[in-house]
Specification:
15 helices; mainly alpha
């Protein structure tokens, strides 16, 4: 059995690992149920299962207690910027939810529902052209378990994935308005302005966009490190002390070399605007991943790298299934292995950093 690298003296929680792997395979398999009408109904049962598992967890996640405290302590007149290490939008969202229902775990129930709802809407926007099974597989292996701990940023990432429709529909102001509002949920969402601008620019000048992204990479790895060292944001200071060096991880090669191939084979088969959007978002995700090895504070931005994996790969699978059956079989199997492997690569973070292993459920205690 593959297990993550863990600190000496710690014990890997194999029961939780098998449980999570079972959740992955179960939700993936359920998406092959056939519906004659309303094809997107196939997502309902997997989504309900994922919601139940998330909201019934019993104090699982490094930040579970702080989020528990935010909901149960949130009041309309209780936000004090100097004493609250949380964005005002998320605080007042919790205050609103607390007004609706004061049950101590209702905050988790509502936030996980919103995260899954926006993920569902992001996937079903492409319902005529997407493999629901592979969309769920991508979501569960790469984001779902992270949401047990990274509640705010996973909610923001789900809303970002939903909002890309505005870029494709050329309602650019709507996309940037959403990002502006998300800033008050999680400050890091402001970074998603950049791929939005890059996509708009790419449609007019691909070369200029690529040059701009290269400059962005240089700035992040050069000047931004020095700048962030002088910014006093208390809740992010511990990331600044976690400088990971200048090496390039094997994870980057594993993630982006196969993905570059899948972008290549889809370039003439998939809608041009959608392909360009996925290319730009992939390049942005690569820059963040690459830079994250030097500046750990950027690591959380990887959570926003939703579109290429959640949307593009499932759309590619469905496209190959319709038009190139000979490539469909091989690539669907390869993408399945790829996404399962992404889960295994995520295990160290799930175990050691996010503390979502072992899993305990209120339903069985």
């Amino acid at each position: 059995m593959l297990i993550p690298t863990i600190p000496p003296g710690e014990v890997f929680e194999s029961d939780t690992h098998y449980f999570y792997l079972g959740v992955i395979l179960l939700t993936f398999s359920l998406c092959f149920i056939k519906f004659r009408k309303h094809r997107d109904c196939v997502l309902w049962l997997p989504m309900v299962i994922l919601w139940i598992i998330a909201v019934s967890r019993d104090f699982v996640g490094a930040d579970y207690i702080p989020y528990y405290g935010i909901f149960n302590g949130a009041k309309w007149d209780g936000y004090i910027p100097s004493a609250t290490n949380i964005e005002p939008g998320y605080y007042y969202l919790n205050a609103f939810l607390h007004q609706i229902c004061s049950y101590e775990f209702f905050g988790f129930m509502a936030i996980h529902f919103l995260t899954l709802f926006f993920t569902y809407k992001a996937i079903t926007y492409f319902k005529k052209d997407i493999s629901f099974a592979y969309a769920i597989l991508a979501y569960v292996t790469m984001w779902y378990f992270l949401s047990f701990n990274l509640l705010r940023i996973c909610l923001a990432a789900a809303i970002v994935s939903w909002s890309i429709r505005f870029l494709l529909e050329k309602h650019y102001w709507k996309y940037f308005t959403v990002i502006g509002l998300l800033f008050f949920i999680h400050m890091s969402s402001a970074a998603m302005i950049l791929p939005g601008i890059a996509y708009i620019t790419y449609q007019k000048s691909p070369k200029l966009t690529l040059i701009g992204l290269i400059v962005f990479l240089v700035i992040i790895n050069g000047f931004l490190y020095v700048l962030l060292q002088n910014i006093d944001i208390l809740r992010y200071q511990h990331y600044l002390s976690m400088d990971s060096g200048t090496g390039i991880g094997l994870n980057i090669f594993f993630t982006y070399v196969p993905f570059a191939y899948w972008l290549y084979i889809g370039r003439k088969r998939i809608d041009k605007n959608f392909w360009q959007l996925c290319l730009v978002f992939t390049l942005f995700a690569f820059i963040i991943d690459f830079s994250g090895y030097r500046l750990e504070i950027l690591g959380r931005l990887r959570t926003y790298a939703v579109v290429p994996f959640l949307i593009y790969l499932p759309v590619l699978i469905q496209t190959l299934k319709k038009f190139q059956r000979e490539k469909y079989v091989l690539n669907s199997f390869a993408i399945f292995i790829y996404l399962i492997a992404k889960y295994y690569l995520l295990l160290p973070q799930l175990y050691w950093s996010d503390k979502i292993m072992p899993y305990h459920s209120m339903l069985f205690d």
